Amino acid sequence: MRLLLNLLWFVLGGWISGTAWLLAGLVLAITIVGLPWTPAAFRIAGFSYWPFGKVVAERDPGVTSVLLNLLWLLLAGWWLALHHLVLAVGLAVTIIGIPFAWQHVKLAVLSLTPVGKEIVPA
Prior knowledge:
This protein is mainly alpha-helical. It has one domain. Helix content is 70%, strand content 8%. It has 4 helices and 2 strands. The chain has helices spanning 2-30, 38-49, 63-92, 98-112, and strands spanning 54-58, 117-121. It has a two-stranded antiparallel sheet. The relative contact order is 0.18.
């Protein structure tokens, strides 16, 4: 079932989300200032490509993670989360879209504070 949901997700727009996060990670890697957020963007890209059967887990939270997440939240995280929540509401209107809406909610939460998180199998 996970494979079918992941394939549907990928074909119906997951590839766009994953590729956008991948490009964002590459842009962050090019700049010296964005380098601390690059691994988080690549993690979110992989999660955006194939989200079913995976969950977000807290890794070792430290002071650096908190500071990087706070800066991320103020500059980019809130509007990325809002984007995913708007998509989730639009998908939740239909019964078929509810599993996809739930994945967008998970992506919204991850978009708020991505540093210090990891994606693990469910």
